[in-house]
Structure prediction request, 306 residues.
Amino acid sequence: MRIAVMGTGGVGGYFGGRLAASGEDVTFIARGAHLAAMRQRGLAITSALGYAHVAPVQATDDPASIGPVDLVLFTVKLYDTDVAGEAIRPLIGPDTGVVTFQNGITGTEVLVQQLGAPHVLGGVAKIAAVIAEPGVIRNTGTFAELVFGELDGRATERVTALAAALEAAGVSHRVSSDIRGDIWDKMVFLSTFAGVTSLLRLPIGPIRSDPQTRTLLHDGLAEALAVANAEGAGLPEDSVERILGLIDGLPHEGKSSMLHDLEAGRRLEVGWLSGTIARLGDQHGLAVSTHRLIASALKLHADGRP
Prediction:
């Protein structure tokens, strides 16, 4: 199976790297110093789940140089979706699948409009990973899982093929028959986790331990859950307590990728996370004061530092 990874950051670099290390034909699309390091030294993954190093590595900044592939792992930041969606057109053959392992809920909608619904699959990446330095992906924590499926829930050959490749690579994964529900479930968690850690500029440990800031987490999750179900996600009513339990199991020093971006002066996905919850909450007449506060407080940082 020929695979292209569009966006070789923490998510794309980790999972694409695992697939390449197991022998899959993977080409990474990257840029700048990260691309240069990959070409010179290969791609390294440091993780409690095991070290991996791919060398030589197939990497380029030009999707047109790759040609049609069987599968695209689409892992760019949400603010790059439009441009990246257009850039991968040369990768698309008659049966090519594009799996969007992005945050938020808008990635699949944009790609469906650009590439057509038959090409697009939904996905959820459950991992904390960053580019530690050019050419090196660091997975923090001990969890790395992909959830994916066709938007209509069908079991197809491309879904089966990806599952088999991940199995061979030793990557935890699950095929979903309700991927939209899974995407919304992550949105409830991530919009709140990313928003609150970024708002307070702190890792999750002290936030969940203090009664007042724990209430901020609870309220953010409750607001996002209400919006998700108003949008038809059908998530269980006990989701808030379940997700709080997951948050309690995170490392004390755990930070969201958005907080890492804020600290580094990079652009933020806040408009697509808390901003989306606030916007949809207003449309449905729901109380979304926590996410409106997060979106407003981080707005002036959303474009990053010059």
Notes: The radius of gyration is 19 Å.
